[in-house]
Amino acid sequence: MNVQDLSWFQRMALRMMGSFERRTYGYQTPFVAELVRTHGMGGMFGIGRAITKVVNDLDKAFGTEPANLLLGILGLWNGCSWCSVGHIRAANLLRFARTGEPYAIDERKVPEWKTMDFDALEDHLVELVGRDSDEARLIRAAAAIQDDRETDFPERELVQRAVHAWALVNDCSITLTYDLDPAVVPALLPKDAADQDARDRYLALRPLDEVIGD
Amino acid sequence: MRASGVFDENAASSLRAAANKAAENNLGVIVDIRLVKEMTVLGRAGLRDLQNWMNAQGHRTAYITRSPQIRGAVLMAIHGHETAKACQTEAQALGWLEASRDRYELELAGIKG
Fold first, then answer.
1. Per-residue DSSP letters for A91-157?
2. Is A147 within 8 Å of B72 when comparing Cβ atoms?
3. CB neighbours of A34 closer than 8 A, spacing ≥ 6?
4. pLDDT tens-digit series, residues A173-207
5. Residue B13 has what pLDDT?
6. Which of B63, B101, B111 to mutate to test the interface with A (most CBs of A within 10 A)?
7. Chain A partners of B112 at a C-beta cutoff of 8 Å?
8. What tens-digit pLDDT sequence spans chain B (113 residues)?
9. Model confidence over A17-60: pLDDT tens digits?
10. Which residues of A touch B (CB under 8 A)?
11. How close is the nearest chain A Cα to the Cα of B69, in Å?
12. What pLDDT band is residue A214 in, cutting at 50, 70 and 90?
């Protein structure tokens, strides 16, 4: 498959989609054009529909916070700073708005985590969410599926679908997001998913310009 | 083919030379970079050149990595190439070389379950 230049029609369509996205989400996904260059407009919509279904199924099965955490971790596995930071930030923001406490998985550490060996990274993330938590079981399952290891996780098939989905997303996103600074990545949520007060308080708790290490 | 340590433009050139040899009688190539700990910007460009060559020669290629940073660099290198795949284990890599379907087709089928 060759990555193609965009036609006039495709550029106009992308401009309209970007405008819609900015109004609804407050940000614009930076790699939609790359999806169109790679798969064509029809292919991009087909992939978009399939991915939306997976995300909705994850939300239903696990809840929005763990689902976003999983998507962030799949993005992290693939080295994509946009998906990893953005979805982990979304999970943290939602949890923080609901309980006053975000996950201990702090998205600002993504650049450091990207350099870790997969096994060590899995252990580290599991430790952060608590070894006996549902989130830990989800992380273990995702890591096992990535390695084709056995897992008795009941929703194995759904997590496997998410792994495939993020393989396709990150194939295009990575060309633009590999070196992205976590500070420029928004929480990947609709505008109305968390109010401004919660967003401001989360930002105060985890400032974007603060350099951190373990 | 294997590389380890810091992957720079010299490592990429060495892999390219090894690929020339390895692919002579074989249409499938495994690039094992599990032991690569760091990849320079020029190393990334070299990896992309290597993959472009593999693609032009029609070699089905599997890259094995063990960290997000290196896997991400591989995903950049294979972007748009349906006959190359980032793997995490040797078994996955061998499975990929034996498969006949292309990557995008396989992933899309996998999303639908």
1. HHHHHHHHHS---S--GGGHHHHTTS-HHHHHHHHHHHH-TTSHHHHHHHHHHHHHTT-----TTHH
2. no
3. A3, A172, A173, A175, A176
4. 999 999 899 999 999 999 888 899 999 999 999 99
5. 84
6. B111
7. 50, 161
8. 788 788 888 888 888 888 777 767 667 899 999 999 999 999 999 999 999 999 998 889 999 999 999 999 999 999 999 999 999 999 999 999 999 889 999 999 999 87
9. 999 989 998 899 999 999 999 999 999 999 999 999 999 999 99
10. 1-3, 38-39, 46-47, 50-51, 54, 76-80, 113-119, 121, 146-148, 157-158, 160-161, 163-165, 167-168, 170-172, 174-175, 178
11. 5
12. very low
d(CA A124, CA A131): 10
> Over the range B44-83, which residues count as b (16 or more CB within 10 Å of their CB) and which as e?
bebbbbbbeebbeeebbbbbbbbbbbbbbbbbbbbbbbbb
Give the torsion through C-alpha atoms of B80, B86, B90, B94, to 10 deg: -20
Contacts of A165 in chain B (CB under 8 A): 107, 111
Mean pLDDT across A62-82: 97
Q: A90 burial class (0-12, 13-18, 19+ CB within 10 angstroms)?
A: buried
Contacts of A168 in chain B (CB under 8 A): 104, 107-108, 111
Give, for B87, the enclosing helix (H) or strand (E): strand B84-87
Question: In sequence order, what are the residues at sequence separation of 6 or more whose Cβ sits closer than 8 angstroms to the Cβ of residue A200?
Answer: none
CA A154, A155, A160, A163 torsion-angle sign = negative
Give the C-alpha separation, A56 to A39, whole Å.
23
Q: What are phi and psi of A116, to 5 degrees?
A: -80, 155
Residue contact B71–A77, C-beta within 8 A: yes
Nearest CB to B111; choose among A51, A77, A80:
A51
In this prediction, residue B2 carries a pLDDT of 80
